[in-house]
Amino acid sequence: MILNLGHRNLTELPPLPPALTELYLHDNALRTLPDTLGDHPALRILDLGHNQLDSLPTTLGNLTNLEFLYASDGHLTEAPDTLGNLTNLRYLNLTHQQLTEFPPTLGNLRNLVELRLYDNKARTLPATFTNLHALRELHLDDNTLTELPPLPGLTALHTLSLRNNALTTFPTALLTLPRLRHLDLRANGIKTLPDTLHTHPALEKLDLRWNPLQTEPPWIAELESRGCLVYRSGAAD
Fold first, then answer.
1. Is residue 226 included in any domain, yes or no?
2. Residue 112 belongs to some domain of the structure
3. How many domains in the chain?
4. Please, which residues have CB within 8 angstroms of residue 72's CB and are 6 or more apart in sequence?
5. Cα 28 from Cα 237, distance rounded (Å)
6. Which residues pair with 159 in a beta bridge?
7. Domain presence at residue 24
């Protein structure tokens, strides 16, 4: 059963029918959600975006058939560890929140394909993210990341966006991502690049704009000659 309650100006969740498979609660005025939301284990899609949520119930971890969770644009300062129980999840969006850290249990999401965590306040990533072997896209723009942990397990990752963070050195963890095609490092504080970057076998797009690079490495021309699109620091949009 599909239930769409979006754009209803709801301030609290009404009683829900059983056997729900899709629930859309986007664009309301919800500040909290009841624990009973976890009593709908058949849910596959849950859209909580664009509310005023201060927290998520830990019972979300009971929704073990969930494949799509959208919880963008709220006031979350933490996310429950029980999100790590959602091992069938393929898409997770926790963007435009106030998260200062991400639950290490997210590393349990072995079927996750796309993870969007941009516009938060995180300084680091959990080392457990290396366990996200199915992940193809990781969006981390507009955080305060200063470094990345080793991520050798992200063997399926092809898109990584780190725009507008606090990186001052190139994260060497990125050199171990064999399928990485699109890398966005705009608006960080990176001054130098590793010489081995130009040997990355899959790189198709590298965005280095708005970094204080001291010199342009000569091997950038080699990257471009093989078809990689390189946006240089200081270039216009």
1. no
2. yes
3. 1
4. 49, 50, 93, 94, 95, 96, 97, 116
5. 35
6. 137, 182
7. yes
Q: What is the pLDDT along the chain (237 residues), one digit of tens a residue?
A: 999 999 999 999 999 999 999 999 999 999 999 999 999 999 999 999 999 999 999 999 999 999 999 999 999 999 999 999 999 999 999 999 999 999 999 999 999 999 999 999 999 999 999 999 999 999 999 999 999 999 999 999 999 999 999 999 999 999 999 999 999 999 999 999 999 998 999 999 999 999 999 888 999 999 999 999 999 865 434
Residue in this structure with the two tokens 């171990």, named with its chain if needed:
176
Show the domain range for 53: 1-122
Token pair for residue 108?
């349990």
Side-chain half-sphere CA neighbours of 135 within 13 A: 28
Helices (H) and strands (E) in the chain, counts: 1, 11
